[in-house]
Structure formats: C-alpha cells, structure tokens
Fold this protein.
Amino acid sequence: MNYLIYHPKRQLSIIGGLKVYHDSFGHNEDPYIWNKNFLHSFCHITQISPKVGSYIFWVSGDTYPDFNKLNCDCVFVVKEKTYWVTANKIEITDPLVDNEQTFRHHYNWVNPPHNEHLFKKRRRYSLKAEENLSFQPQDKDQNLIDIVPFLKDNGINTETLRKSMSRTKNDKHALNSRPYKLSDDLSKALHQYLSKSDIIIKGQEIENKHPNY
C-alpha cells in the first residue's frame, strides 16, 4: 500500500544555503531525514501496511482539518522493512542502527526514560527509504510543493481528503490524522511529478548536517 501521511507543520533549518523542512527536535523526529536513508519507525506506523517499494508522501497543511494546501516535505520510497528484535527496546549496537546520530535522535526515543510509542503486543518495525528515489521537493524559491492541485487533477478533491484524513468532526490535532491510501498508479505519477521539482534534497546531502549533532 501507498499513503499520504499528514503531520504537523514542519520546522525550518538553514543548512549551508539549503532550507531544510523537518520534524521538531526533542522527540523521535519521524520521518528522520538526517540520514542517507530516511527512517520511519513511530508516527502512524500502526495505521499503515507498507511493503518494499511502497510510496509514502508526508504532508502538512495550512489549517487542520480544514486544510486547503498539502505541502509535501518528504517523499519516502520503502527500501527495507525490518522488524525489531524487541519491540520496546533497542541498543546502539543493533544492526538496524546506522550510526550514533540516528540512535540518539530517532531510535532511542523508545528506550527509558523517553518510552515513546510503547507496544503491548505488536511487533515493531522500521522503514528505511531508497536513497536515490526519496527526497524533499521544493520550488525555485525553496518552498515546499503543494500537491492539492495535482490530486484534484487526478480525481481526488480536497473535501474527500479532509474527511478521510481526520478522525472526527471535532478532531483539531494533526497528530490524530489518518493516513490516506493511494493507488499504485497515482503514487507513481505523484512521485514522477515531484521528481521534477526545481530543488530536490536527498538524505546524502544532509546526513551529517543535523543542527543538534
């Protein structure tokens, strides 16, 4: 399956002339983009069923749930889906962990004292993105790309997205949003569309440039 995943508005850091939009620091930073292979282990992970080759488009809007824009900050094509040995604990020496930076800023948030997103029965897995197909798309002015016009042109109106991505009429918190399933054909077309963006930022460009590392 392929998905649009809605999350809160991105933070912005200036890295050597690049504008990089990312999750706020101080938690699991999901999706974690400061690595050659983008990472996804926590946010909405129990609501999706991705496989190798799946497309995940991370977006944020202007006003949730009544958004008029969906700015895409991460195009994530799944390269690996790896289950953890222990659902609620991971060591820095685990083969899944690429380096100390990813452990500190991403994986470690499941360990004490953070204890984020603990599972009672589920098996936990992490997704690693295909480094050559995954990226952050921007326009020539270094702004994120609004994909609402593309979706409208392909038969998905904004009201349908609003209803599908929010849990209830009173749902006002973006963290409570629901992933929206996309067909294979539409996902490939959207990936191709975003691949033509004026600016493409891939993980290898910023993997050693985390502002807090």
